[in-house]
Every structure is written in structure tokens, then in C-alpha cells.
Design brief:
Residues 103-116 have a biased composition (Basic and acidic residues). The chain is mostly helical and 128 residues long. It has helices spanning 7-12, 28-42, 48-64, 74-88, 94-110; strands at residues 18-19, 22-23. The chain is 55% helix and 3% strand. The longest helix is centred in the middle third of the chain and has 17 residues, at 48-64.
């Protein structure tokens, strides 16, 4: 799976996994995380140089924790950067993000495979 992104943005993200056509993704969630970052950039939440610097910092911290930096964890770093920047920029706190992540997990747990996952108010309650 590939995505279109401008040449300046690609130049600002030299570690981005890509082929001749552009960025590549091994899993759908990677493409979703990528698309969220592109959309937030397009809406002016951050510049590509700012994003690249934050992503580089996340990768450096992961390497210091022992990440072998083989490329397999690139989009995990991308997602961690996205979550941190969303909190820092005041879009959604880490707590709010955790609340929605937990609610999504509860909804996914009760949803049969192949069916749409729907959040309900009960999903935001405490786990039993």
C-alpha cells in the first residue's frame, strides 16, 4: 500500500519507509496513523520540519531503550509521536486518548469479526 505525499514533506522525513511510488505500509493501522499526521499537518497543527524533529526524537529515545532500529517499529514511533504531539498541541490529552483507546478496545472485544465497531456510552465506563 502506498500514499501520495509532497516532495518537501518526503525530504523532511528521510527515514520514512518507501518504494519508488512513495510511502509503504505493512499494516492498515500504519496507513491510518500516516493519514492522521498528514491531515493534522494540512490543518496547520504542525510543520513537517517540526514533525520530523519530534519523530527523530522519538526514534532516538526508542534506540536508547534498546530498539534495534531495523525499520519494523518505524510506525510505532510514528504513532507515539502523533499521540504526544496531539497532547502537547492541546487537541486531546494523554488521558483523553487513553480513555478513547480503552473504549475502543471494549467495543472491539464485543464486536463479532467483520462487523463495524461502534462505540457506546457504556464503552467509556470502567472495565469490570
Amino acid at each position: 500500500m502506498t500514499a501520495n505525499i509532497s516532495a518537501p514533506a518526503l525530504a523532511a522525513l528521510p527515514g520514512l519507509p518507501r518504494d519508488d511510488e512513495g510511502p509503504v505500509f505493512r499494516e492498515p493501522w500504519e496507513a491510518h496513523a500516516f493519514a492522521m499526521a498528514v491531515t493534522l499537518h494540512a490543518r496547520g497543527l504542525f510543520t513537517w520540519p517540526e514533525w520530523a524533529a519530534e519523530l527523530a526524537g522519538e526514534i532516538t529515545r526508542a534506540q536508547q531503550r534498546g530498539d534495534p532500529d531495523t525499520g519494523d517499529t518505524y510506525y510505532q514511533h510514528w504513532l507515539a509521536t502523533l499521540e504526544r504531539m496531539i497532547a502537547v498541541k492541546g487537541v486531546a490529552s494523554a488521558e483523553t486518548q487513553a480513555q478513547y483507546r480503552d473504549a475502543w478496545d471494549r467495543a472491539a472485544d464485543r464486536t463479532p469479526h467483520g462487523r463495524p465497531i461502534e462505540l457506546t456510552p457504556d464503552d467509556f465506563g470502567a472495565r469490570s
